[in-house]
Specification:
The chain contains five helices and no strands. It is mostly helical. Helix 2 packs antiparallel against helix 4. The relative contact order is 0.14. The model has no long low-confidence stretch (mean pLDDT about 95).
């Protein structure tokens, strides 16, 4: 199981290998984060409360992927702004 520190290191390595730092301004990352959140919301649009709690496995997999994307962008913006996400959440 990957812990937060290892995940952050993996994300940094992934970004550096692709030379994406040039694109990762806080503005761009916050916009990408918002888009990913909208993609997550799309999976729940028009569902009832009950349906949203009992997603079919295929839809649940898509939701899981969007949550992963959101988490990765959130971690990345924290890295760029030198914010500890765990500390920020606890404060």
């Amino acid at each position: 199981m990957t812990n937060m520190k290892n995940l952050m290191s993996e994300i940094s390595k992934f970004i550096e290998e692709r030379d994406w730092n040039q694109f990762h301004s806080p503005k761009n990352l916050s916009m990408a984060l918002g888009i990913e959140v909208a993609e997550l919301q799309e999976h729940f649009q028009w569902l009832s409360q009950e349906e949203s709690r009992n997603l079919p496995n295929e839809k649940l997999q898509y939701v899981k992927e969007e949550i992963g994307d959101i988490f990765n962008y959130l971690i990345r913006i924290c890295q760029v702004l030198d914010i500890d996400p765990v500390k920020a959440a606890s404060e």
